[in-house]
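Running this now, will post back.
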Amino acid sequence: METLFLKLVNLSLSAGWLVLVVLALRLVFRKAPRWIFCLLWGLVALRLACPFSVESALSLLPSAQVVPTESLHTAAPQIHTGIPAVNSAVNPVLAEALAPAAGSGTGPVWAASVVLSRLWLAGAVLMALYALGSWLLLRRRLRTATRLRDNIRQSEWVETPFVLGVLRPAVYLPYRVGETELPYVIAHEEAHIRRRDHWWKPLGFALLAVYWFHPLLWLAYWLLCRDIEGACDEKVIREMGVEDRRGYAAALLRWSVRPGRIAACPLAFGEVGVKKRVKAVMGYKRPAFWLVLAALAACAVAAVCFLTDPVTGPSPAEKRYTYEGKGFGGDFAITVRDDGTFTYYEGMLSSHLGNGTWGVSGDILTLTDRKGAEPVRVNRFRMEGDDLVFLAEGSDNFLYVQLSEGERFYGEALPDTPSGVTKWLDYTEEPSQMDWDGKVTMELPEFPGVTFRYTPERITAWEDGEEVLLITGMPIWNVYFEDLTGDGLPEVCATLSWGSGIVDTRVVIYDYANGASYALEDRMFTDYALRYEEADGLLYVDQRAYNSGELLSSGPLVYADGCIQVEE
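Update: finished.
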């Protein structure tokens, strides 16, 4: 239920932008026909009702997923509004307020999501019960209604004319409707039926019941009811003369309904905005053709820009990198998927890459980490900045292939680490080398099918199409993998600053196998930082005085007594 609630929150936030656009268009095209306004509200309904949306470069939504689903499972929740200033202002506050104690996992975030999802469900059920109760009470009062003709009925319990029914709508009239008013009233209610308003209004209320927590959608429903009545009025009076319009306006005034008397289902004759409707009826003029055309064009633009999501990744799901042979054998192409796997090869290539070679033999991509060695099959790779890094089966050595224009091929064999520590990246020695817009991925044999992703502000894990946020910081300075808990599966070990270093620098460990998070932190008093010691192949933690750099102590990072510690 928590995941469903989060999905609805994101859909409502996306629809909220469209509501603001519709409000602006109602002002710009205030002289346009009201049926165009109903069409615009239909776009809002489509955004709310459709569980998916296509990505488009034309989308104007800042973000399609303001609250990521992985926030439910992370210790440091973040929002992604698509507006950097808002993100930088809100995310530190969220992390500070909802961050669990070291070793306690994601507690507060999950607890809050459970409470909020239950409140949402209770509100939606109450809204549904209100609508159902109103409808049942009204049906009971109408049991004694008598048939006037066709689908028109009269009842002594009816205070104002209205339409009721979804599949078989009927018009209900008070007995006291006068002969002069009757044609106008019936024409109005039958226009509702021809326009299918007895479908659209209940649908609007149903969506409001689901998204009751969003205030803009209450405003949207209220304006939808007004625009439905305005469009119906225009349909009826389109061919009327002045005298008939006077009679129609008089009927509106005679049978106007006091606010709050009509529930979600009926379409009452004088339900909303009667004074404005009377003024619009008496001053009605056919809208110019160019105005209608411009309004329809605005609807189309709004649909393209706000019913689609901003592009967040390669489209389609696979991205192809093509390399040229540089005179060593022709062209070679590889299709690289966004999840960190590659599946497609074409062409034949054998090119010298520094101290190694790589190429295609049949349908197998192979490389060697030194000239003359037997080639091995490549089964994994990762991105490092602008470089595609291949990993051979049975080897821990990587070869780099540059993706930028110009010199496309170069190679470098990386030395094995002398222990169980795997270095992913480390910018502590040269902070200027950090690519603030870069994205780096890593795959580990211990976690088949999992791709770890790094940006300077977050580390995530992708598995089966689901992304889980592991660590967040401002920025994350280094990342290593080491099996600290002794379960044979490495933990993600990182040094990060919090509050851009104003709060502290800390060490965070994420046990992906068990979903647990640990931290070494002492806010405003002590800074902690990871350091890889090549001499013994261990990760060390340097403890320094806050904001002064004075080294207080240093020791290997260990896991003991159920928590992360620094060994003396």
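The chain has a mean pLDDT of 75. More later if anyone needs it.
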